[in-house]
Amino acid sequence: MTVDVNKTTGPDARPPAGPEAIKAIPVRHPGRYVSAVVALALLGAVVYAFAQGKINWGAIPDYFFDDRILDGVWNTLVLTVLSMVIGIAGGILLAVMRLSKNPVTSSVAWFYIWFFRGTPVLVQLFVWFNLGLVFEYINLGPLYKDYWSSFMTPLLTALLGLGLNEAAYMAEICRAGLLSVDEGQTEASHALGMSHPKTLRRIVIPQAMRVIVPPTGNEVINMLKTTSLVSAVQFYDLFKQAQDIGQNAGSTVEMYFLAAAWYLIMTSILSVGQYYVERYYARGSSRSLPPTPLQRLRGAVLPTRRPKGAAA
């Protein structure tokens, strides 16, 4: 009696052998290694050049927490916040005007955006600062009257120059956000008897925030850096304070590096805040939110907990 070795039924059945495992050979990318070496070499050359340069690196920690520097940091933050408040409020108003069916209102908003986006911020700052050469007095009747040079302080010049310019950019961001909301929701709210302002406040704007918030965070970071231009109109922000200290102490380049370090610190903090704000407004657009940096660090360092009874 012969036994079929290929038999697959019965008590002595053997399962058929599976396909042979594929041995995957990763593709080599020599260009990546070459580019990495070149990048490291360039970085090393830059670091070596600055290390050999005539730079007094010790002056940076000596003045890093100087009272004048900290005062400049505070002025920079205050100016950033106030300018963005003006820009956001003006941007929302201009966006609503642009979307208005009134041709006059829409044209006025279009001209404002065209003018302020088409001229440099530094030019606008100088225009506001030197209007005293055109108008000797500012006369608001019984409310206020004074010389223009006394009225237009460096702080007011900076707020007008930065805030009004930012309003033009925020107007386009807000307009894009408002247009992203389906028109059917506006029509439905009007059918329920809601007024147009209430529809904007309760229906349209909350949904448009998902589109408005990410670029607004970028505008805040950009505004923080743009405040360095106000040193040209004698406002003592971080850059102006560092510039004056560098000229008096003979450490001009060192103080520029110090200012750059403070700007990096502030923009990094704002970037973290922007991440969490965007994550908050993304709750309704995705089923699961991406992990935060702290959650990623926790998952990489701490071992994953297994449920009780699970096989090791």
How does this model look, in words?
The protein has 312 residues and is mainly α. Helix content is 66%, strand content 2%. It is built from 12 helices and 2 strands. The chain has a two-stranded antiparallel sheet. Helix 3 crosses helix 7 (154-179).
Set out the fold topology.
Layout: H1 30-52, H2 59-63, H3 67-98, H4 103-118, H5 121-129, E1 137-139, E2 145-147, H6 148-151, H7 154-179, H8 183-191, H9 196-226, H10 238-249, H11 252-281, H12 293-301
Antiparallel strand pairs: 1-2
Helix pairs in contact: 3-4, 3-7, 3-9, 3-10, 4-7, 5-7, 7-9, 8-9, 9-11, 10-11
Write down the secondary-structure element order: HHHHHEEHHHHHHH
Strand content: under 5%
The total of beta strands comes to 2
What is the typical, i.e. mean, pLDDT?
A: 83
Q: Any idea what the shape is?
A: flat
Low-pLDDT runs: none
Alpha plus pi helix count: 12
Based on CA atoms alone, the radius of gyration comes out at 31 Å
Helical percentage: 55-70%
Q: Strand pairing plus helix content: what structural class?
A: mainly alpha
Distinctive features:
single chain, 312 residues, mainly alpha, two-stranded antiparallel sheet, 2 strands, 2% strand, flat
Concise synopsis of the structure shown:
With 312 residues, the protein is mainly α.
